[in-house]
Design a protein that fits this description.
622 residues, alpha+beta, 6-stranded antiparallel beta sheet, 5-stranded mixed beta sheet, 52% helix
Length: 622
């Protein structure tokens, strides 16, 4: 500001000097010239855009009387240059300050960014160091000898640990073998092993669960592992994981599992390998392929045979097997019905005991009934059935041809066969009656011996009593062994028949042995699974009398050992089963039959004995 004052004063002085020279004789003009020069030297202010604009030119002031207007003085160039210089310097200084401020701000930002980068680098370095320490610790844990010994060679192999001490669910036997009392509680400490139903991984896992239940002595038990926190595994009976999960597991989970093994809170129950699973899968696939190939060959053979078959031979076609309703056509319907009811019926798999027979008059009626599903199979002369098959082929409807046939000679002799069957039944009844009479005689002798024994006991004649007991033992043993021998032969014949029927894909014969459940059903399942049975070993377990309809009837318990092997899976084992029944020879029936696993015999037989008022003669005389 002082500088501006000096400049203004200089302008006034210079203007005054110039005006005095021009207006030396006129004082008023002199003063006006000074003011005009000052005004001209001042910078002009721009008019604001919203300032009102004059609509008419303003009237110019008229010079006073006696005033002579002189030319306006020109501004001093030096002063103007000095003013311009001052403005330029002010602009330069402002720009310099702006530049310095911007540089200072940039430097501050750079410093702040460097601090952030350094902090991030420190955090990253710390994380890398921590990761390296964890990796070293994890590798050390993974190399633990006990853990390594429990893992399988394939990353997909499954390892199962079991609780090391007895729990309400798991109890160890005399040989320290863990046995399940109920379905064990299992967990996945590293996460689930399979999630896609039907996948090979899920089939492998499901097979492992079945094998665990068998190994724990509880076949059929449902074991459903759940994903668990590794810190909570002490609350489970089983811990299940794969080798691949160990290779990718966290330090915390690995440490918990290895510590549990080291402290023997958990011990290795088994390692289940993918190699065994894949071998079993291939064997199943091969067996299934062989079955399909055989069925296809049998089907084609039946079709070929059907095309060349004599028109009078009784044959069968079907849409479903077994068929709930069977259309029957022929001149000897009664004979065909009888032959269908025999155990050696060639159509046993097609028309079983539950099938309804629908007499049908013609091939056209058979065709229409099959199309309407009024029946699902037809048994008739081959000539008529060929017409039906041709019509189905024309309409594009698939129909199957049975390989079984009934030839004319057998059909013509059906009455003879029926008579022979009746004679056989009478002979069997006569034999049963004879056996019953012998049994009654033996029973009477036994009762008399018991009475004599009781009399001797009352006389307190120990020597005589011991001799009578020995006689009783021989008699009881003789009778019991005779029953065991007969049952052993009957059971052996039944097993062979059922095996042949299953292999030939025929329904199981309705024999007396089939009433021994669940063994009969389990035996059929084992045959279908490829198990082969060796000669059985049958021995007396108990013998005596039970009550049936107020009658004291012979009752017996026979222990049977069944050696078996499965060539596909390469396994041999022996199953032990106790067969218990009331031997009602008078009516030729085995009443209240039951099969018991030898392991659970004592408790189950006690219940059966109480229910049937069983009194043992075998154990009494031991």
């Amino acid at each position: 500001m002082p500088r501006l004052y000096i400049i203004g004063l200089s302008v006034v002085c210079l203007t005054a000097g110039s005006a005095q020279a021009q207006y030396s004789n006129n004082g008023s003009a002199f003063v006006g010239g000074i003011l005009g020069g000052i005004l001209r030297s001042m910078p002009q202010q721009p008019q604001p855009s919203n300032a009102p604009q004059p609509t008419q030119p303003q009237p110019q002031p008229q010079p006073q009387s006696g005033y002579v207007q002189q030319a306006a003085p020109q501004p001093n160039s030096q002063v103007q240059q000095q003013i311009n210089e001052e403005r330029r310097q002010a602009t330069v200084e402002a720009a310099e300050k702006t530049k310095q401020r911007q540089q200072a701000e940039a430097a501050a930002r750079a410093k702040q960014q460097q601090a952030v980068l350094k902090a991030e680098a420190d955090v990253k370095a710390k994380a890398v160091a921590e990761e390296k320490r964890n990796l070293v610790a994890i590798n050390r844990i993974r190399a633990d000898p006990a853990l390594v010994a429990a893992l399988g060679p394939d990353p997909r192999d499954i390892t199962v640990l079991i609780v090391g001490k007895d729990t309400p669910t798991v109890i160890r036997d005399l040989n320290d073998k863990p046995t399940f009392q109920s379905a064990p509680v299992a967990c996945f400490p590293f996460g689930g092993l399979a999630s896609n139903p039907g996948s090979p991984e899920m089939r492998f896992l499901s097979g492992v669960m079945v094998d665990i239940a068998k190994k724990g002595g509880l076949p059929g038990a449902s074991i459903t592992p759940r994903i668990c926190d590794s810190t909570d595994i002490e609350n489970y009976d089983l811990v299940i994981f794969s080798s691949d999960q160990v290779a990718n597991g966290s330090l915390e989970n690995l440490t918990t599992v290895v510590n549990a093994i080291g402290s023997r809170h958990f011990v290795v129950f088994g390692t289940f390998t993918v190699t065994d699973f894949e071998a079993a899968e291939q064997a199943k696939a091969g067996a299934a392929h062989a079955v399909l190939a055989k069925e296809s060959a049998d089907r084609q053979s039946a079709i070929d045979s059907f095309q060349t078959r004599d028109a009078t031979v009784i044959s069968a076609i079907y849409l479903a097997s077994p068929a709930s309703v069977v259309c029957l056509m022929g001149s000897n319907i009664e004979g065909v019905k009888y032959l269908l009811g025999r155990s050696d019926s060639p159509f046993a798999a097609l028309a079983d005991g539950n099938s309804t027979i629908l007499p049908t008059a013609s091939a056209n009626a058979i065709f229409l009934n099959l199309k309407k599903h009024d029946c699902f199979a037809a048994i008739a002369p081959a000539g008529a059935l060929k017409q039906v098959v041709a019509a189905f082929t024309r309409d594009g409807i698939p129909v199957e041809v049975s390989s079984g046939t009934i030839d004319g000679d057998k059909l013509a002799n059906w009455k003879v066969l029926k008579e022979q069957d009746l004679l056989a039944q009478q002979t069997e009844q006569a034999g049963s009656l004879k056996a019953q009479r012998e049994a009654d005689a033996n029973q009477k002798a036994e009762d008399q011996q018991k009475q004599a024994l009781e009399a001797e006991r009352q006389k307190n004649d120990e020597a005589t009593r011991q001799a009578k007991i020995r006689d009783m033992q021989k008699l009881v043993a003789s009778k019991a062994n005779a029953v065991v021998d007969g049952f052993s032969n009957r059971l052996t014949g039944y097993m062979a028949t059922v095996r042949d029927e299953i292999i030939a894909n025929r329904p199981t014969s309705d024999q007396t042995i089939t009433k021994f459940q669940p063994w009969a059903g389990d035996y059929a399942t084992l045959i279908k699974q490829g198990w082969e049975f060796q000669p059985i070993r049958a021995t007396i377990k108990d013998y005596g009398r039970a009550q049936w309809m107020k009658r004291a009837i012979e009752a017996i318990s026979v222990r049977v050992e069944l050696p078996m092997m499965n060539r596909v899976i390469g396994e041999k084992k022996t199953v032990c089963v106790d067969f218990v029944w009331i031997n009602d020879e008078e009516f030729g029936l085995r009443r209240n039959p039951e099969t018991i696993s030898c392991d659970g015999y004592a408790a189950t037989f006690d219940v059966w004995a109480q229910q049937n008022n069983f009194a043992s003669q075998w154990t009494l005389l031991q």
